[in-house]
Amino acid sequence: MAGGKRGRGRGRGRGGRGRGRAAAAAPSPLATRVCLWEFSQNDARRDSGSKLVRQGLARQLDARAAFQGIVLAADAPQILSPADAPLIQTRGLAGVNCSWRGLDAVPFGALGRPELRRRLPFLVAANEVNYGKPLYLNTAEALAAALRIAGLARDAELLLAPFASGGAFFALNADAFEAYAAAVDGDGVAAAEARFLADCEAARAEARAARAVPAGGYLADGDLPPAESDDDEADGDLPPPAEESDEEAAAEPPPPPPPDVSGLVLS
């Protein structure tokens, strides 16, 4: 009898094995299976992928583990699209938890099935490290973006709920997400990406033009009193106009450079 009581105490007590198994088996709030290959290149205390695992929103995979769902890879030839939604819903979504500086050390070719690897279209990061930088998403942002493009908006929002920048990420990319999610397949997403980049560059060019000084100067239309030169001209005392020197011609501002798209590099 005494031995039986001790056994029940261990099972129900604080830190007991029974309770530990129950906690480990707690279901994810996501309807989608989200997984990560961990390469331990970041500080686990601050890393977004590690936080997803701690929160029960993602499952960590061994580097040798097989995966039959969609895999996010920066060098994938195919772009992710809503056409991938059925596979994501049935087989899951996986990403790589690593540093941008350590991409060369990641064996992308050995992760998942080659035909199921996808890259993300143009998006802007909102995390505190790379805020405002095109394409430099952290692990959590990349996974949430894939879910959002696939039409799984609720899971995307739940995935970023633990992060203070989650709302900003969706807000920064609202127009892009709407365009990508409306596409039918990868070709449609690629076309939407090209249109979005063209619109961005047009907006940048318009902003640069608005900052430029208008032709003729800011006082060109003002009603000014006559200058002294007007009196000279009336008296006929103006000297003959001097020919423009080479130095003056060279000092004129050069024509404006072509649009700068160096910051819109796609991976």
Question: Can you describe this structure?
Answer:
α5 (139-149) packs antiparallel against α6 (153-160). The chain is globular, with a radius of gyration of 30 Å. Helix content is 40%, strand content 7%. The protein starts with a helix and ends in a 16-residue tail after the last helix. The chain is built from eleven helices and five strands, in the order ααβαββαββααααααα. The model is unreliable at 1-25 and 229-267 (pLDDT under 50). β1, α3 and β2 (59-61) form a beta-alpha-beta unit. It has a domain at 30-197. It is α/β, with parallel strands linked by helices. It has helices spanning 2-12, 17-24, 48-54, 85-91, 139-149, 153-160, 166-172, 174-181, 186-211, 228-235, 246-251, and strands spanning 34-38, 59-61, 70-72, 93-97, 117-118. Strands 2-1-4-3-5 form a five-stranded parallel beta sheet.
Q: Stretches where pLDDT falls below 50 for ≥5 residues?
A: 1-25, 229-267
What is the ordering of alpha helices and beta strands?
Answer: HHEHEEHEEHHHHHHH
- Care to count the β-strands? 5
Biggest sheet features:
5 strands, parallel
Mean pLDDT across the residues is: 75
Radius of gyration: 30 Å
Strand content bin = 5-15%
What global shape is seen?
globular
Output the strand order for the largest sheet.
2-1-4-3-5
Structural class: alpha/beta
* Number of helical regions: 11
